[in-house]
Amino acid sequence: MSTIHWTEGSVRRSARWHSENGTPLPRRTVVVDDRTRADDAYHHACAGTALLWRGDFHNARHLLQAMGRRIDRTPPTPGTSPAETYRLHRRDSGHRARVLGRLLVLLDDDYGLALRRAPDVRRACLEAYGPPKGPMAVSLRELLGVTGAHQWRLKGVEVPALGARVHPHYGVFAPVRGEYVDLVAEAPLPPAVRCAPAGATAFDLGTGTGVLAAVLARRGIGRVVATDISPRALVCAEENVRRLALTGRVQVWGPGLYPEGRADLVVCNPPWIPARPTGPVEQGVFDPDGAMLHGFLAGLAARLRPGGEGWLVLSDLAELLGLRTRAHLLDAVRAAHLRVVDRIDTRPRHRRSRDTTDPLHAARRAETTSLWRLTTAA
């Protein structure tokens, strides 16, 4: 267990250190409050010093924003290629996360936040972190993410394909990009499934919130097994299955990728970028070396029933950024003794595809999300 130490009023104090993205324990921590100037806080944070906030909560948020503006004074470095632009963007994003992550707050032994005008964050922290284990220091940036996720969990995300809301948990990718859900909701089912959907079985690999498993069940498939490697995702999917009254049709299984047995339809929407995530929220976007993608392809032929299909839902953003080629993907399909039956494409509708200030805007604007219908090679 990592412990952070600081001096306050000539008294040496300590608390547990927690960072969801694995940020190392700060070497030095100083106490700051409402009198601290943004320039001073920024320079301390850039030098690697953690700043433990002891003033007004809203002023802490203002300070965090002011530090962010100072980072933004340095324009993004243009790359000579899409891959170089992406690398520099990740570098700059990492620097921003490190600097802003050095503004800390102290949570009490019940997750209370003893700051003036502070909200009650205890329920949000309990959902994200589990039972408290004593006072804990976290970055304000992370805490704001935790409280934001709590609001999403309460309100849910509207999914038109379901005509209902799905409630994401902290650290579980939220279905805010509706195009991939619509692809699964509208793609033609394999002939064997269309003929007798109530007797068919589908696997939803990497289910996250369980949204695709729910879509498959609503399309009439009698048995859906939803899997994930993340314990948080498994709990989240179970809760959403209950909310949607699909407990008898959808089984949540894990942690793991493939469950036992075979299926008439196997759906996988792996993370789209073959790079390392920096925290649990990024695990829905970043897949180191494409491990989940290749795991899905390698195991698919052995898990399909005769006449069954595998549906790979994948963006070509990695290709547009020069991180993977189309030939690499098709070679992996062939190496797994699979063939492409069809490909259904859709264009992005999310806000970031229209954000011209995004360094990756050119790639996001040209992005295509595809549902690849795969079956075993003859």
Automatic annotation (TrEMBL):
SUPFAM superfamilies: S-adenosyl-L-methionine-dependent methyltransferases. This is Methyltransferase. One of its GO terms (molecular function) is protein-glutamine N-methyltransferase activity. It comes from Streptomyces calvus. CDD domains: AdoMet_MTases. The lineage of its organism: Bacteria, Bacillati, Actinomycetota, Actinomycetes, Kitasatosporales. Residues 200-315 form the Methyltransferase small domain. Keywords: Methyltransferase, Transferase. It holds the Pfam family MTS. GO terms for biological process: methylation. InterPro entries: DNA_methylase_N6_adenine_CS, N5-glutamine_MTase, SAM-dependent_MTases_sf, Small_mtfrase_dom. PROSITE patterns: N6_MTASE. Signal peptide: none annotated.
